[in-house]
Amino acid sequence: MRLLDETVGRIVAQDPASRAAAKSRLDRLTMPHWALGRLMDLAEDLAGMTRSLRPPVERKAVVVMAGDHGVASEGVSRYPQEVTRQMVCNFVNGGAGINALARLAGARVIVIDMGVAGGLEGLAAEGKILSRRIGPGTRNIALGPAMRREDAVRCVEAGIEAALELAPEIDVFATGDMGIANTTPSSAIVAALTGAPAAEVTGRGTGIDDECLRGKIAVVEKVLEVNRPDPKDPLDVLAKVGGFEIGGIAGLILGAASLRKPVLVDGFISTAGALIACHLAPRATDYMIAAHLSVEMGHRIALRRLGKKPLLDLDLRLGEGTGAALAMPIVEGAVRVLSEVATFEEAAVSGADK
Amino acid sequence: MRLLDETVGRIVAQDPASRAAAKSRLDRLTMPHWALGRLMDLAEDLAGMTRSLRPPVERKAVVVMAGDHGVASEGVSRYPQEVTRQMVCNFVNGGAGINALARLAGARVIVIDMGVAGGLEGLAAEGKILSRRIGPGTRNIALGPAMRREDAVRCVEAGIEAALELAPEIDVFATGDMGIANTTPSSAIVAALTGAPAAEVTGRGTGIDDECLRGKIAVVEKVLEVNRPDPKDPLDVLAKVGGFEIGGIAGLILGAASLRKPVLVDGFISTAGALIACHLAPRATDYMIAAHLSVEMGHRIALRRLGKKPLLDLDLRLGEGTGAALAMPIVEGAVRVLSEVATFEEAAVSGADK
Prior knowledge:
Two copies of one chain form a homodimer.
Chain A: H1 2-10, H2 16-27, H3 37-50, E1 60-67, H4 82-93, H5 97-105, E2 107-115, H6 121-125, E3 130-131, H7 149-166, E4 172-178, H8 183-194, H9 198-201, H10 210-227, H11 234-241, H12 244-258, E5 263-265, H13 268-280, E6 288-290, H14 298-306, H15 322-340, H16 344-347
């Protein structure tokens, strides 16, 4: 708990002076005022996060947190639980969506086993993944809490540690997730922390049909009834209705924020982790960049609570950090605009009328 | 006119067999079905355009067409006409928004003088820009036609020639524009070809205030009344209410389509050019990718007419090809997904239930 408390204590707001200096330069670039819109807003944010007019963004990592979920036995996913483990192997072999998109973005993919059923000791021993296992998957949250409170702290602290360890070689973090059935705990977290009804935050996940969706909504309702997570206590929410990888994502975000580094938040599961982070340390939102708006219906509600507008809206619903990887060039574009575009004076271009 | 007719004659639909082969692979990738949404739609399109399951997209160029507009004297822009020429110098010196974003995307920037007031002979002689000058700017379309019909043909053919000349070394084209006051002819083109009223397709351009916007709408209405462009004759529309660079953009798109190469269409001015191209050769739309939705209010109406959904929506309103450059990584991402992600069989991952 000490690492978590210390990390939360180190998270401070964006720097107003750096934001103002960036705005002053952006105001004078050779283009109609603020003509690159949200790219310029993002440049101002990045300056505020990093305290720099040349925010470093070149060294990028997508941290994919993997974990299993006891609630998979309630039939909330179209895939068997073994797919979590198989997909971790796919990540290691470079064959998954996140591998293709991270290669394009020039980002490293770092996979952390937060608690995959069946174990991945071989890959961890070979150094192909990091092991921060809390257990062999959460318990079934339709019957009781996912994990003990101390395990929730351990998840979050594992994410913080990952950020601290990677920090010397990473400028921009991105969150990713893998875990069969993990839209169900994410829906429960978003419902618990926003007060939205289960039916408004529960979607089709891997592509379940209408009947299965009705069942999934009933499961989320039951999860909330059985566990009664305390919305004022984010660790209680994580412990009762969360997941190991979701706690890891929350921790990664807190770690990045404490280091004053930007963190691209991927889709619905990542945003559930971001909500936990935001309730632990509201200022952490200053370092979050919402990468995209997912198809998963609760995502919009969760982003609204964070006060974030997503950069992309491409009907993605894969997770793994794929939306975050796709948004990385936009982050780099924002920095290029701030640092490479000439001002009216520099380029001897006539300004606008008053 | 012969080059234009021949080019239009060579434009054929996307290849259904290549689309089907791409879809078949995308259907089996290790992810929930079509979980990368519009990225997968785009991959299917790119396969259909290029007749390949590994669509080449590495060698990219933003072709920035520059031209001046007599209608600038009506007070429709916040900037003096000399800015067109100054910005071309800024492009050549690498200091503009498009330079920064094209560098990030790994794209060449090719500037073509279609008719900038004052001339740019020095830069053309040094080989820093291409010169395809039709004249020293269009005439004031509030008083009569922009150019002669044969000049409209010359504009479009200059764009086609640019595509043909660049084709051996370019896989993906992107359109860009520079021309003070060029949202006004673009609004007139969109109004003429879609039938939308001037007030619905005329926006703030460089950032004019309410009073100036009312005046600009009145100018567009007058332009349409004075010239009465024939909506069934896209060359008549271009000649009467268009611009040299807008015709060049239409030609570049037709050239790319005739070569079966994708072309990223930037913002409002580029989309006005794309509308001209679509009315000359409806199948050209098969090769267009709408890069982004601009703030400029007529853009949505023009995109709807083209049947295109933009990839990005970031409140951009700069032109120059900046939105197209920002969208290039998404195009490359689509290809990576198609060509690099493993199928369920390849990765030995369990499939979904039926």
